[in-house]
Structures are given as C-alpha cells and as structure tokens.
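Aggregate trends can hide what the representation actually does to any particular protein. In the encoding step, the backbone of a single protein was reduced to a row of integers, each denoting a local shape. The record that follows shows the chain in one-letter code together with its fold in token form.

***
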Amino acid sequence: MSSNKGARWCAAPNCSNNSRTNTDFSFFRFPKDHNRAKEWVISCRREDLINKTSSYLYANCKICSVHFEEQMFLNFLKNRLKPGAVPTLFDIPNPPNRKTVKRKAPTIRSNSIKIKKQKTTVEVK
C-alpha cells in the first residue's frame, strides 16, 4: 500500500471510493509485473492506462477492495490479495460511457446590408 501522504483513489471507472471517505475499504496498487498490470488495466477497461508502464501504474494507480471477488482475498479483513488476483467486479456499461460535449451549431452571419422591401405605387399617364 502507499504511504499516508494523501488520499488513495480507486482507479476503476464509475468508482468514487477513496481512503478519506471510505475507511472500510482496502486499496491495492497495480502489480509491478508488466503482464499482470496490463491484465488489470484490461479487466477494468481503462483504455487511457493501456500505454502506461507497469512502474507508473504501480506508483500512481490503485483499485479498491470492492472490485475483487471474495475468493481473491487471503483473509477476512480483505486487506491482502492472493497472488494472481485480478479485479473483476465493475459497474461499467458495455461499452463504457464516454463523455460527450454538445456544441451549438455555428450561426452564419453575413456582412451584407439588409434592404427593406417597400410598396410603391406608380401612376401611369
């Protein structure tokens, strides 16, 4: 686990668990092993982390205990994982939602002068 310098945040999509507000959860670093770290990234569907090194993931990313099945833990406190444990419990739509920004359609402006139409009557002699 990381030092107590700051809060730990869960890297799983749609999970807002952190060590400041959820003291009942354990937080687990991504594995140092490249293949296992990649397996965790794929399991939690974090495409933005796929090109990160395993050392970056180990130092900066954690997954909370909510995302591991019961049989993945070594003890009842759920603070130690079995070797080879992989997070599998996620609340992710298939495929994951992506944030979309809606923009207004551009307004077309013209620099031409508008001329008012007027009715005129002409007398013919």
User: Anything to note?
Assistant: The chain has one domain: 1-91. Residues 1-91 form one domain. The longest strand covers residues 27-29.
